[in-house]
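Hi everyone, sorry if this is the wrong subforum. Our group has a chain we'd like a structural model of before ordering constructs, and none of us has done structure prediction before. Sequence below.
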Amino acid sequence: MKKNLLFLHSSSELYGSDRSLLNIVKNINGNNYGITIILPEEGPLVNELKKIKSVDVQIKDIATLRRKDLSVMGLIKYTCKFVGSLIFLIKVILKKKIHVVYTNTSVVFPGGIAAKLMGRKSIWHIREIINNNIERKTVSSIVKVFADIIIANSKATALAISTSSKKIRVVYNAIESTNNRIINKAENQGDIVIGMAGRINRWKGQKLFVDMAEKVLIKNETARFVIAGDVYKGESHIKDDLKEYIKNKGLESKVTLLGQVEDMNDFYNNIDIFVLPSIQPEPFGLVVLEAMEREIPVVATNHGGPTEIIENKIDGFLVNHIDASEMSERVLELVSNKELRKSIGQKGKEKRSSIFNIDNYVKNITCIIDNI
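Answer:
Right subforum, don't worry. Here is the predicted structure as tokens:
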């Protein structure tokens, strides 16, 4: 019997969690599952999902708890939206004869609760590590009550949810193999481009990246730096603050903000070193795999998911997240040594192919869905 799945997600863009959801839906066996996906708005993720045969994409802004809602008026508005979302989801579950509600983020609560009310199974795929202790415990308590199975994208994420829950399964993210090879590799130090990609916010480490650029440029003034990604809607002040930070350091000509990049292949084809400078633990770090796939050496901060991907000094570098000193040293080492860039890049590619591949990812996810 075909199992009907309802996926809930909080974004319609194409950042890490969005692309991980797309990878599930693209590669799952459509003959075995009926798939309905609810997204909050039109966007690039919607466009990609609509290319997949027999996938029903619906646009509905399901109540998502954000930090800005943690005020008296914010909670009143959230509660009203939550009730409306719950009613909407119950109707979808009945109309589509849904068997499993699959919530693809920690802070969309109506899905798991609607599933519980309607006697359906609930999978909660957690892709975030919430830094605030009270917020983390609150979210963890709700998820553990209303989920039948909790999928964590790394051991670090799993530990942030619970140290003991028998509901938790760790499934590492993965990416598809690509034939897009780097054709713009720098032939000398003067051509080196160092890049990072991710949502612009307080913890992704864009300012630490800029600090690293400043230190690198003292010893190699020809290096260039690019930052791909943009802010959440309504948070343009964070991007303005980053621009001011770059300006105050006099680095406008050396550090370029690319905004949201639609063609990530083009981004990777034009960088030689990739940096993940997160100042809080990264839940996983899909961009690390994307760089590895393209044989780009990776320098990542030494906490969270990247420590489960990278073997330090073998297939990448793990560095201190407190300041940019060690990060700049590793970047300069790579800048000055083409053979090291090549060696680290090749070993990263081998690991990505053998461990973090789509076949393993989809096999693990479908096994959970089938056995729930």
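For your construct planning: The chain has a mean pLDDT of 93. The longest strand covers residues 33-39.
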